[in-house]
Amino acid sequence: MMSLKERIKKNPNLFLSYTAIMTALVFVFTVIFSLYIPETEGYFNIGETGVYIAALTGGPYVGLIAGGVGSALSDVALGYTHYAPITLVVKGAEGLIVGYLYILIARFLSDSKAAGIAIGALLSSILYILGNMFYMGKAEITIGIITPLNLDVTLNQTIWIIGAILTFLLIIGVSYFQPKYTAYAISTVAGGLEMVLGYFLYEQFIYGPGAVAEVPFNIMQVIIGTILSLAIISALEKVWKPSITTS
Question: Which of 147, 214, 221, 226 is 20 to 30 A from 171 (CA-CA)?
Fold first, then answer.
């Protein structure tokens, strides 16, 4: 049985409809949860989850369109219109890179359980370090789309210890039973680095030295997007039965 990605390649109508669905998915993931960053007038979100799901399940061109358009529309909807043009380019390129990289390297890491453990250790460590450095104390979080809910929360070290442990267990667990997800994680992290660099260069031009303030937030978006999308795709494949990411 053909994978979802193979069916999309062979059917232009399916490509268009699936791209539209993934664009909407990226939009929803981006606007449903946000955290304002005053230094750069930007915001933290979990939109990378949608970008990665689009690229891994639909291929690089679905990732390109859904990642760019869905994310740019989110900027407009949330009132960050000044970011929409650069978002269209940066998030589109991110989806394209993730989709292509996975195709290129998946075959070489199809049995690499050790690499999966290394990726799990790396991402969980970065999550813990960034959490403790930049996400401590009180924060205002916005959840929802039509009637958004603003919540005041307190982030502490315990939360990040638990988060790091769960991240490590999730990644090594999935990588052990499905080693191909090692290539998946490498692809999302590589694409995410393009996103971090792209926004930094843009903000450096606009805001000067203050642009560095958003770098740790964007890195955190990559890590959380990798974790959530890995979990979602793994769950979908159990329901779908055939692989939805294999080329």
Answer: 214
